[in-house]
């Protein structure tokens, strides 16, 4: 019987039970869990693309009742309302409305609310036109997620496949680990390529397909 390859919706799993703690993210998790005992009640969660920043930040937001907002969506007039609870600002390093983020920062400080910002690089390198905002970024304590070890990368690969409702054999994970770059971005890329190629060819995922993509 021919096995059909069907495009299925993604089901991103972002609960605490879905987050694996390893050597690459244990220090960041420990800092997150110290809330509200953060310096000034503020923290920067940083790390490379796809490392689990959004997942860990979402866990924090859910557990403390924080409001989530992307930096690019911030508006000055929203700052007082947002600061009625702890706030998670995602992708603060990508720039946005500097004045809005500056006012939100001050509103959180004034109200004694926690503020968690996520980004890729060190906070001192984040983009900002306002000198006062740049100085505030530089004052943030960073909680960094590093590139993954093999144990975490295995779980990341399994999760990326599972998010696409794809079941794969452990042998495929081992094969990928032995041939791919050790990074979260590479894991996302290889899973995406395998998924698309499986659909395009109408064949199931397996080592044969992976070999064609990685060694062909």
From TrEMBL:
<dbReference type="GO" id="GO:0006270">
    <property type="term" value="P:DNA replication initiation"/>
</dbReference>
<dbReference type="GO" id="GO:0003688">
    <property type="term" value="F:DNA replication origin binding"/>
</dbReference>
<dbReference type="GO" id="GO:0005886">
    <property type="term" value="C:plasma membrane"/>
</dbReference>
<protein>
    <recommendedName>
        <fullName>DnaA protein</fullName>
    </recommendedName>
</protein>
<dbReference type="InterPro" id="IPR027417">
    <property type="entry name" value="P-loop_NTPase"/>
</dbReference>
């Amino acid at each position: 019987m021919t096995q059909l390859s069907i495009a299925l919706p993604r089901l991103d799993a972002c609960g605490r039970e879905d987050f694996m703690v390893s050597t690459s993210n244990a220090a960041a998790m420990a800092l997150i869990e110290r809330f509200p005992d953060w310096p000034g009640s503020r923290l920067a969660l940083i790390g490379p693309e796809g490392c689990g920043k959004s997942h860990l930040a979402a866990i924090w937001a859910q557990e403390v009742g924080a409001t989530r907002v992307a930096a690019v969506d911030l508006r000055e007039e929203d700052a007082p309302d947002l600061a009625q609870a702890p706030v998670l600002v995602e992708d603060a390093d990508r720039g946005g409305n500097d004045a809005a983020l500056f006012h939100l920062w001050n509103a959180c400080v004034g109200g004694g609310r926690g503020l968690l910002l996520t980004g890729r690089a060190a906070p001192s390198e984040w983009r900002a036109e306002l000198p006062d905002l740049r100085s505030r970024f530089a004052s943030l304590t960073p909680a960094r997620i590093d590139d993954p070890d093999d144990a975490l990368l295995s779980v990341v690969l399994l999760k990326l496949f599972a998010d696409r409702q794809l079941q794969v054999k452990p042998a495929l994970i081992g094969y990928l680990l032995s041939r791919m770059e050790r990074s979260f971005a590479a894991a996302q890329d290889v899973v995406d390529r395998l998924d698309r190629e499986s659909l395009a060819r109408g064949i199931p995922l397996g080592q044969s397909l992976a070999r064609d993509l990685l060694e062909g």
